[in-house]
Amino acid sequence: xxxxxxxxxxxxxxxxxxxxxxxxxxxxxxxxxxxxxxxxxxxxxxxxxxxxxxxxxxxxxxxxxxxxxxxxxxxxxxxxxxxxxxxxxxxxxxxxxxxxxxxxxxxxxxxxxxxxxxxxxxxxxxxxxxxxxxxxxxxxxxxxxxxxxxxxxxxxxxxxxxxxxxxxxxxxxxxxxxxxxxxxxxxxxxxxxxxxxxxxxxxxxxxxxxxxxxxxxxxxxxxxxxxxxxx
Amino acid sequence: xxxxxxxxxxxxxxxxxxxxxxxxxxxxxxxxxxxxxxxxxxxxxxxxxxxxxxxxxxxxxxxxxxxxxxxxxxxxxxxxxxxxxxxxxxxxxxxxxxxxxxxxxxxxxxxxxxxxxxxxxxxxxxxxxxxxxxxxxxxxxxxxxxxxxxxxxxxxxxxxxxxxxxxxxxxxxxxxxxxxxxxxxxxxxxxxxxxxxxxxxxxxxxxxxxxxxxxxxxxxxxxxxxxxxxxxxxxxxxxxxxxxxxxxxxxxxxxxxxxxxxxxxxxxxxxxxxxxxxxxxxxxxxxxxxxxxxxxxxxxxxxxxxxxxxxxxxxxxxxxxxxxxxxxxxxxxxxxxxxxxxxxxxxxxxxxxxxxxxxxxxxxxxxxxxxxxxxxxxxxxxxxxxxxxxxxxxxxxxxxxxxxxxx
Lengths: 231, 407
What we know:
The complex is a heterodimer of chains A (231) and B (407).
Chain A: E1 6-15, E2 23-33, E3 38-42, H1 49-56, E4 64-69, E5 72-73, H2 79-89, E6 90-93, H3 105-116, H4 120-133, H5 149-162, E7 167-171, H6 179-196, E8 199-203, H7 207-210, E9 215-220, E10 223-229
Parallel strand pairs in A: 3-8, 3-9, 6-7, 7-8
Antiparallel strand pairs in A: 1-2, 1-4, 4-5, 9-10
Chain B: H1 3-15, H2 17-57, E1 60-64, H3 80-89, E2 93-107, E3 112-120, H4 122-129, E4 135-138, E5 148-152, H5 153-159, E6 166-172, E7 178-189, H6 194-199, E8 200-204, H7 205-212, E9 220-225, H8 231-241, E10 245-249, H9 250-253, H10 255-293, H11 295-303, H12 308-344, E11 346-347, H13 352-357, E12 363-364, H14 370-397, H15 400-404
Parallel strand pairs in B: 3-8, 5-7
Antiparallel strand pairs in B: 1-9, 1-10, 2-3, 2-6, 2-9, 4-7, 5-8, 6-7, 11-12
């Protein structure tokens, strides 16, 4: 495994730093995640899981410290470069699915590939391939509001995977799903991790979901409380 | 811009159908009003100018040197035939007529007023400026013995005379002796050129020569061109060829009309600005609400790799489609309205008394100029562009996660 695929060094995040109500969300986070890992960030609400994922993905800035993704120092990139990084190398799965409401499932899945400039045929073929793996092939022409929560989340995962990113960041992807749908989704993500070799980092506080991961990082009060590779 | 972003832009407009429709209707109505007003106002102005040119000044007039500052029979164009030959040789000139003028007294048994006695050739005037079209009452003829007169409508009203009444014209002849001529009114002219309607009595040119003892020579040669835009060019050429004559364009003879035209251009510009503001505010309101309520959606799009420039282009397409739809609807409606009024005119007879006071016709024919549509397109495009920039500043300042968490 490549030890330098994703690293955070002395990563800190303070919200409203110049105000009396300043909150230290992350404090000196040092992490290393290997290529192809299926890693989980766990911890109680407010422990900093979402903030850490947002900073790793360049959705939010760090107060100090560094994030390095496959040799690229994410924390030093300008907004335009961050956009390109997210488009070409990072897939996101959000707790609230966050599909584009006016696009069908197929168009949502193909969205990132279209931005990447891939051909219509390639987008269509790859979209259907990923949809088949996530068992949503029959739902491709439906709009998000015609899908259940579990189906929407699978479309969101398909969208994140379709662009062949190096890394998928999933923030509480199963939080809004029932336990059966949650287990199904995690199985599918695990399968994608193995089939496509994509590094997946997700956050959760559900023990069942956490148990699927091979690398567990526990955060508490913005600090790493535990960091272990599981068998 | 990627097709998927275009698809989102169009679908977003459809998602807020009634709101989009409202903005389009607002732009359509504003443009309709703008185009109709521009065309009708310009039509009104140009009709006043056209009346003055056809009935009096021509596009260009030639006078004897010093005539305009000191008019009289001692300052006539002595060799009109030679000048006519020069004019006939210029293909830009459509027609020209000769007139003899002397100020005098117009009297009836009960009234007397100062007026202008104009000796004209009615047939030539009809070919030249279609003077007969201004006939209000009576006939366009001086009668068999040419002892008839056509009187300006306002002069006739002031003197309480009608067709068939007798008038006596008195004026100084070339020998500075007072001479008189009794005539019967054969027609009343309403040119809407106040200077003529107020004081002119048109009589036969030969009769005028006889009365004023002017064997040859004329006071003015009025010229019409095929293309009015060539007034300056032709005037300069004629002035160079006829250095002993005063050659004047209609705009120099009627500066107030030229100012009126310029004022109308400013008025139209102000109207365009108003439409611009209405369109801008309409689109701005819709785009602002659309951006603010979709901030989360834009945040997601940014998060998964869409650049700010792509989102800006998408929002611009949305507002451009709104603006263009409004423009096309407004241009179509306005164009059809102008077409109708250019053919059938806008009948303002109920205000004819007021319009007469300004020398305007009771029926106004609209003009249709490509410039109206181009100005309107520029106004709507500008409004579209400006109305997009401000709402997007909200998004530009936010990080993706801030936009996502905004709601």
